[in-house]
Give the backbone structure.
Amino acid sequence: MQRITQLQLRLMFILFHFSTTTGFLIGPISSSAGYQGWLALLLAAIGGMLITFISFTLAKRKESEFIVHYGKELIGRVPNIIIMIVISFFFIHLASLILRELADFMVQIYLATTPEWVIAGLFGFVVSIAVRSGLEAILRCASGFFFIIFAIAGITPFLIGKEMNTDRVIAFITHINPGSLFHESYPFIPWFGESFLILFIFPWIANSGKTFRSLTWAMVISLFFIETNLVLCHLLFGSKFSGELAYPVLEMIRFIRIGDFLENLDPIIVAIWLSSLFIKISVLLYISTLMISQLLKLKDSRPLSFSLGAIMVALAMHMSKNIIELNHFIQKIWPNFALCIECIPLIYLVASIIKKRPRKSG
């Protein structure tokens, strides 16, 4: 495939962070952190960049090789295979988690009489086609969707300005409690630490020395839009009510009115937002497919796309009984599991440093 440009990388990761955080995490952040949620998000983003830096540092040591191949030289063949299988499962599990959230969202808001498995199955089928088309096709889609998505995100504050209670602005300063910040930001660090996946596609990145700079800019830009949506929700609803809403950003969008002919913009904006979720799920499933094909020493990963897509859909439908269990899992259990996986490259990095340390002669 062609090399991934730094621009494509930036656009992809902006969508990557923006899609799930804006759609599904504004409510939990508001519920746990209140008016200091903006600061908890900032700390979570910094933690995510530290995790990403570990993977970037490891990838730079052998930038022309895939970790699946050279990992056995660092920690041994069998441990490397086991760890790669676990990480591959992590990516497909994360993709299924997002797919389940998407299916729950569509059933609750727009398609109440449609079975969840139908929504998940159709979306999973489209994602599998994208994965079969390759990472290059997915990144081109990301580049095309980016400008539409962020044009909408950029004009939203101007369309709801008159509805906001600006007296709440002072609460973002007066409600800061440093003692609880780590506890409140911890569950959201893994969502920003997902950028560690660059380790598994690093040989395909052009001008790889600029990769961490591109990831930093992507984080800053996406964080700006996420923080904007969080602040707007708090100014519109207050932090307590925002935390009680399942999808506060959707409710905020429903306040937008443009004349008599566009009184309900949310179906249009949600349809555009779904494209960012499509990009994220496709990338995650592609990475999992790529890793498994490398472990099996297949020359082409495409034959695995529909099989793993089916596994993703099945896992999405059976990971929890209802949305209450799913939210508990995401906020209480998922962060620990995700952080353990995202910090695994540290093991390889330490092993690489030890193996390259010059031995003292007797």
